Amino acid sequence: MRALFWLLDTAISLYVWALIIAAVLSMLLAFNILDSRNRLVWTISDFFYRVTEPALRPIRRFLPDLGGIDLSPLVLILALQALRILLATSIAPLFGLYAF
Asked: Most exposed among 15, 50, 64, 71, judged by the fewest C-beta atoms under 10 Å?
């Protein structure tokens, strides 16, 4: 059971990092610091878009339009961190697991 909680916690942490990388990559592409015509840059940005977009799309529907500012990654990161805290403090102690 400890391995399952560790795996879930690690998966959430990796997804948070994927969200951060996707947001930074998006900004670098928007400001033309990275060239999206470069095949490697396009492949990496497409990968992170495909990994993060299914989770961000429903959040974007509920957030107000702020022009060029997208707060959906921030909202999702906060929700995922809250889930990690919930797992560590409420669910894990039920199974006798007190630390990851």
From this structure: 64
